[in-house]
Structures are given as C-alpha cells and as structure tokens.
Amino acid sequence: MSEHTVIKKILITAGTHGNEMSGIEYLRNLQSNAQIHAQLVAQTTDIDIELAIVNTLAVARRARYVEEDLNRQFSQEKLSVLTGENLEHQLAVEFNLAFGPKYEPTRDLVIDIHNTTSNMGPTLIILQSDEFHQQMARYVKANMPDAIVLIEDHIPYKQHPYLCTIGKTGIMIEVGPQPQNVLRPAAYLQTEEMTKLVITFCDLWNKQALGELDVVEAFRLTEEVYFPLCSAGNKLAMIHPSLQNNDFTVLNIGDPTFLTFAGTTLGWEGEDQVYPHFIGESAYYHLNIAFALSRKTLI
Q1: Residue partners of 155: CB distance under 8 A and separation at least 6
Q2: What is the pLDDT of residue 36?
Q3: How far apart are CA 152 and CA 137, in angstroms?
Q4: pLDDT (mean) for 265-270
Q5: What pLDDT does residue 1 have?
Q6: 289-298 and 217-226 strand pairing
Q7: What is the mean pLDDT of residues 105-131?
C-alpha cells in the first residue's frame, strides 16, 4: 500500500464467526445507539465508516459457522465459483459482490473484529508490513501499550482467504481470552479502544499528522504446531499447564509443551526462542492445532 494512499472508506465487520461476541455487541451498539456511533465518527473528519454483522445465521445459532468457516472463503479460488458450495461460501460470494470485489476493491480498509479463547490480549493482526501498517502498529502500541502486534505476511496479502482481504487493505482485531458466546467487559472495552485507535490513526495518516513514532515490538507468524496423535488420530496429550495461557511468552528447546494423558511431560523439540500464540484455541481443537508459533521482530 502506497504511503500516499488516502483512506476514504472503512468497513468494520463482526460476526464473521457467530460466537465471538465482542465485535458483534460493539457493532450492535454502534448501529442502535446514536451517542456511541457519534463517538466513533468523531474519531475522523473525512472518512466514510460502514458497519456489517456478517454471518447473521451463525450469530442467531450462536455458532462459529453453519457449514464452513466463513473466514476461509475469500480466496481467489473460492470467490471465482459464483454458485455457493455451502452457506458460508454463498455468503462470501454475496459479501464480496456487495463490499468488494476483492480484486478491484472499493473499500480502502476493512477492520474485521474477532475473539479468541486463548490468552492473547488485544492483538492487532496485520497482513502486510509496509509503511502504512508499520505506522498503524506503532500508533496503536504508543496509545495502547498492552496491545500485541501480530504480522501474518508469510504469503502475499491477496492470497489470504480472510474476509478482510476484500479491502485494499485489511486487518483483524483479535481479543482474548473470551469464551465463545460470552461477553467479557475487558475484551469488549479493548475491542472498542483498538477500533477507535485504528480509525484515529487513519485520520492522522490522511492528514500526514502522525509525527515521529517509535519502532515497536511485534511477532511474525511462522507455523502451526499440532497435538501429538495416536495411530487412530486421537490426541495423546494436552497443552502443558506451564504453557497454557502464556501466549507470546518465549518457548525454548526442552521447555514443557505437552502433558500426556499418562502424566508424561513432553518438552519442546523445535527451534529456540519462538513465541506461541492461539494456545489451546477452542476453534482449532477439532483441527488438532495446539498453537501457532511466531518470531519476535521490530516494526
């Protein structure tokens, strides 16, 4: 994204997953409460802000999705098939036509709000590390010191299958820990705070009024780690208690990682100085994903 690109249209989405309540309740409040909406709009003077609760049927059913994960339906391959293979795929096609299209985007920035059951705190997920996103990360961290910046630029931006990629640029706000179908006040307030900061940043970016911002710590996604399985495909172990809830804490060779159901501790056998996150995420449990890994960097 060019450093001179002006942000004119922002789309804020929630309910991409129907059981992640912070964004859903925040957007509901924005849509129904004129005072709260006015507070958001007051963050900028010349940006058009749209709101969308996306997977309304999943929200009504209090489910992550109805048939397939909506946040994996926005790849070029999926969007090129215009007849929906399932409910979420059809919804993605329709949403892309209404708010995209992905490869000729009409929205400058899409902010997609999520929750995680893991202890990731308020995390800003950026999919590119160009000047715009570097400055955004620095601004958010400067004004919200407990924020975490996670970079997922291991593939080109448009190759991601995420909903937010229908915009010229897109980010995700991921806040945890929060159980599914529950609203915790801390998660809600962090969601609101980070969303407002991103919008204020865009306003200052447009006006070239950001000033000097310090380089900040960030984490760059590297890979996913799976639970050990038996030959029948069943889990042999769980997350070790000393690792559980310690997202973005360094993991070194030999550190306790899994605890087998027989009571044996399995130490980390990968590379030194890696940083797990999405540790024990509920939505990934059926996929046998124990956690994701990242490397610490500066941005």
Answers
A1: none
A2: 85
A3: 13
A4: 98
A5: 62
A6: antiparallel
A7: 98
Task: Taking residues 239-244, report their average pLDDT.
Answer: 98
* Closest-CA residue to 221 (of 127, 111, 144): 127
- Residues at the annotated binding site? 17, 20, 114
Residue 283's SS3 state is helix
State how far the Cα of 299 lies from the Cα of 151, in Å rounded to an integer: 9
Cα–Cα nearest to 190, from 151, 150, 140, 152? 140
Record the tokens describing residue 128, joined without a space.
Answer: 């590119």
Strand partners, 256: 267
> Which is it for the CA torsion 204, 208, 209, 213, positive or negative?
positive
Kindly write down the DSSP assignment for every residue of 212-280, as one continuous string: -----EEEEEEEEEE--B-TTS-B-EEE-TTTTT-TT--B-TT-EEEEETTS-EEE--S-SSBEEESTT
Task: Give tens-digit pLDDT for 171-228.
Answer: 999 999 999 999 999 999 999 999 999 999 999 999 999 999 999 999 999 999 999 9
Q: Domains in the chain and their CATH numbers?
A: 9-215 (3.40.630.10), 221-298 (2.20.25.160)
Model confidence pLDDT, tens digit, residues 48-106:
999 999 999 999 999 999 999 999 999 999 999 988 789 999 999 999 999 999 999 99
- Annotated binding residues for Zn(2+), written as ranges, equal 17, 20, 114
Q: What is the largest CA-CA distance in the chain?
A: 61
The whole-angstrom separation of Cα 85 and Cα 107 is 26
Please state, in angstroms and rounded to a whole number, the distance separating the CA atoms of residues 80 and 291: 31
Active site residues per annotation? 174
Place of tokens 């400055």: 135
pLDDT at 3 over 60: no
Please say whether the beta carbons of 273 and 253 come within 8 A.
Answer: no
DSSP code at position 188: H
